[in-house]
Amino acid sequence: MEAGRLVQDHFASGPSPYWVRYLLGYGEIERGQSCLRLALGPSPADLISDSQIHDYRGGAKGFSWHPPLQMRVRARFSHPPSEFSGTAGFGFWNDPFTTMGEVVAAPNNAWFFYASPPSAMELVAGVPGWGWKAAVLDGGRLPGWAMKWVRWLLRFPVWTRLLGRVARRRARAAEALLPHDPTAWHDYELRWSKQDCTFRVDGTEVLKTPFSPTPPLGFVAWVDNQYAVARPDGTIAFGRLAVPRQQWLELGSVEIMLLAVED
Predict the structure, then answer these.
(1) Helix (H) or strand (E) holding 191
(2) How far, rounded to the nearest angstrom, does the alpha carbon of residue 58 sit from its chain's CA centroid?
(3) Domain of 201, in residue numbers
């Protein structure tokens, strides 16, 4: 990709053809007033529900974003964190899990991310395992044969905890809880370079870290009813939550620009 590549959507007429629309269960994509609404629920816990747009057609082969780049998203949520169930957010990742929670790649992401209890992704000391955050995880890359062994070993609880502890030591993660009211409109910005990641909300820096995820990654914005657990003792678990009322993430705009290659 050449510097200057630009993705820009203000959703005046719904999502542009650039985006892949992805819906499961009780997920819906609705047009709001000059915005796009990713809505969910009410939905039961025995069914995966997801409302999502992304830009990676064909799975991993469709990941196309590399640093350096800049992302700007204007967004708001329907409910505060104490009343929002599941996970939601926007940014870049490598989609490392199947819908059943099977791991198919080492996780890599740089995004604004929300998870509700009982999620307990305790990746950074001193930062809760749930909440509305700016977050980076550099899990590196594992060859296909190694991931096949990982998936097989994860079938056995004794190996699951051991692999969880190894993955935690190997991964490089940084997170910061966001103090802003997510139900109000905010301008979220990520600058991703090979050397670091910088997050801003309404122009104010909220996280700067020397960690940078392993590319290529794809852009995603979503709301779902899932939770995940990754504790320091190696505990790994996935599940689904009931959503008692409709909840949503509204996107006022998404802009992604590839910047000039750094020296």
Answers:
(1) strand 186-192
(2) 19
(3) 6-121+148-225+241-258
DSSP-assigned beta bridge partners for residue 251: 36, 75
Residue 109 falls inside a structural domain: yes
**208 domain-assigned:** yes
Number of Cα atoms under 13 Å in the Cβ half of residue 8: 5
What is the side-by-side strand order in the sheet with 226-230? 120-121, 226-230, 236-240
pTM, 2 dp: 0.88
The total domain count for the chain is 1
* Position 172 in a domain: yes
Which of the pair, 200 or 158, is modelled with greater confidence? 200
pLDDT tens readout for residues 106-132: 889 999 999 999 999 888 888 999 999
Q: Are strands 120-121 and 226-230 parallel, antiparallel or unpaired?
A: parallel
> Minimal CA–CA distance to 72: which of 19, 112, 20?
112
* Tokens matching residue 144: 């296909």
Query: For the domain that residue 47 is a member of, what is the CATH number?
Result: 2.60.120.200
Q: Which one-letter DSSP state was computed for residue 44? A: -
Which amino acid is located at 244 in the chain?
Answer: P
Is residue 78 situated within a structural domain?
yes
**What percent of the chain has a predicted confidence (pLDDT) above 70?**
83
Cα distance between residue 190 and residue 219, in whole Å: 12
